[in-house]
Amino acid sequence: MTVRHPTRQLTEPRLPAQEMPFIQLENLTKTYAGAVAVNDVSLDIHKGELFSLLGASGCGKSTLLRMIAGLVNPDSGKIIIDGVDMTQAPPYERPVNMVFQSYALFPHMNVEQNVGFGLRQENIAKSEIKDRVAAMLELVELADFARRKPQNMSGGQRQRVALARALVKQPKVLLLDEPLAALDKKLRQRTQFELVNLQEKTGITFILVTHDQDEAMTMSGRIGVMNTGALQQIGTPAEIYEYPASRYVADFIGTANMFDGVLGREEEAGVSIHCPELGHDICVARRGLAGDGAPLTVMIRPEKMQISLAPGADENVNQVIGTVTDIGYLGDMSIYHVRLASGRVLQASQLNSQHTSERKITWQDQVVLSWHADNAVVLVQ
Amino acid sequence: MNRNARFTRNGAGRRLVVGVPYLWMVVFFLLPFLILLRISFSESRIGLPPYTEVFEWLGGLSFRVLGSFSNYQFLFTDDLYLSAYANSVKIAAISTALCLLIGYPMALGISRVRGQARTLLLMLVILPFWTSFLIRVYAWIGLLKSEGLINGLLLWAGIIDSPLALLYSPFAVYLGITYSYLPFMILPLYASLERMDGSLLEAAADLGARPMAVFLNVTLPLSWPGVIAGSMLVFIPAIGEFVVPELLGGTSTLMIGKVLWSEFFLNRDWPLASAVAIIMLIILVLPLVWWQRHQQQSEGDK
User: Complex ipTM, two decimals?
Assistant: First the structure.
């Protein structure tokens, strides 16, 4: 059995192809007291891209970001920004600015002084500093708060000060470490779109670290999923969701029904896979499968399954029968837990597209779950 | 009913907790101060007590004032007292500056190391307190005197030909005060530096500030309360310092503590000594008031 490279499953075109990546990370490794924080990470990021590093806490995503900023020195590997090797450069010499998770606003300076801090470190005329700070405060809609101390501002306002303070330096790359984690849900959603607009307006390359998959999916052009210090998969949000490269990614992003299977014979529509938990073989459209009789995992997203009371007629559709044990009503959609004869519970979701108080399917109903061969993904890792 | 009972009990407890320190301050600070203030307006006499009455009761509510400002007038006519005050302020100010110069890097260093090493370094700062202050000052005599350790070492190494007059000099007084009060500078500085959010320093570096600019623009202003607190803790006791100039200083180093002592114990002029003490207190209270105002201002900012 050959192990597929995570990027071989790409079905969507990449972002504008470029001769040379803007940021090149080569084999970066960092160890803290014997524990590996970042393990041999290589990554190319393009100019003007909004790239997210996504992973659970402790996966090494923040360490990787801090390496790009120069706040952490890698044990080995290279960091090249816009063609210049910056691996050994101190943070104050890098064309990179960061929005810290805690915002790290200087408490002894007002908003204006905070935003102007970075410019005062350069040889810039006072009048120009004043103009640029004023323009930046206008951009983040904080012009009226110039004299306010950060302690007297709300979380959302502080976040915008931190953003303005980094952007006013006109960096080649803006690093954002969980910039929205401290905001409440409504504000977070609004700020997500504001950040994307700002990125498009300024054209600056954004690298965002987040543990929130919704945030990464909404905002990013591409996502790098990290686990235990290594990059698991790099791709567009759709690639990562629809065609996860490993069990870890499938499980981490969204909800996934996964079951073990053994590769069977080839058929017209795809390959047949023997899944003991489902009770019978299923058919999966072929996607770079290799080997015969090899153990593998089949993954189906809940919304890819149709739930109905009567079996369908289409032969190209996989079908399993089960009993509804739980229904979760979320407003826009409902989630059904369906127990199979083997005892395995699958999750299926369906849009509540009709305005009706009467549910067609209810508890203890016997239902048929069906899905097209195209909608299941085979994972070998 | 029940809640009411608990409320009064809490009230009594609170009064006790607040009352004890107040009582302490009244008995051991305010009353002695008032006694001192009264004596400073009287005149010295031979007898017990060695000073005259300030008020004479005429019965009922009427009384006659006998006291006068003569002691204070005397202080301002004799150069000795004015120069002793000026000298004390100068020595205290220079010693405070020395403590700050030596203590700041030490406090910064301690706040930047982690774990066991930090505990060890803090222990080393506090360790001298385990030995009596007096004994530590005496130890400096052994180090500084003509046939002492430092002169012996310099002679042996051939750096000097004859012993340096280290002891009984202003140098010895500065050394003694700086040495004795250094921990009082380091500890508040350490406390304010240790509290500092490390991400602020990272943010400053990220925004293009070189290490020196980070220090001047972020570290120093944010540790300002520690600088003020440490300076007060050194300056205030240093002004009235008696032991160090007495043991290490020569006759030329005039400090107000020594003058006070000799007025009290040699001249037995309690009223004049009291006036000296009251003026010293006023000199000390002024910076304290300024500090308090500064504190309130910075709190008002938050």
Answer: 0.83
